[in-house]
Design brief:
By secondary structure, this protein is of the alpha+beta class. The protein has a domain of 95 residues: Trna Endonuclease, Chain: A, domain 1. It has 3 helices and 8 strands. It has a 5-stranded mixed sheet with strand order 1-2-3-6-7. A 3-stranded antiparallel sheet has the order 4-5-8, with no helix packed on it. The radius of gyration is 15 Å and the shape is globular. The relative contact order is 0.17.
Length: 152
Amino acid sequence: MTQITHTELGAIGEVYVAHLLSTVGLQVQREGPADLVVNGLPIEVKTARLSFYRNNRRRGYQFCLKRSGKTSIKAPLVILLCYWDITSDPVAFIIPADLIGQRQKIVIPGPPWSYSGKWSIWYQKWEILASLLKEEMSTLGHQAVAIQSIDS
């Protein structure tokens, strides 16, 4: 069996998040200014699998946020998915894009469920998406859709 490419893993992650959000009644489009558009809100989805980084000295999840010649993240929210096993649901970090700034990458070292570094407060923080959707919906003059939590 051949190894899944980074591009294929990215597509799998986008489909995973789209399915997860559509099952709670949100409208999800896979075309637009970002990877997904959820009830009008652009969202970037980044995926990584457990691999070596830092000259093969450490293992973790490395997310490339900006590549040479490509634009930086323009969506207000970024969902980082850590795939430790392609047959299992990934672990998610839901991070406001303004906190990421112009970083080119984010690394989650070791097992994501026991990670305690800078980005750990965003572990499974689906309520951030709910909050942004409420803001988006009130801006558009519609009744806000509430997501309390999504257990992945």
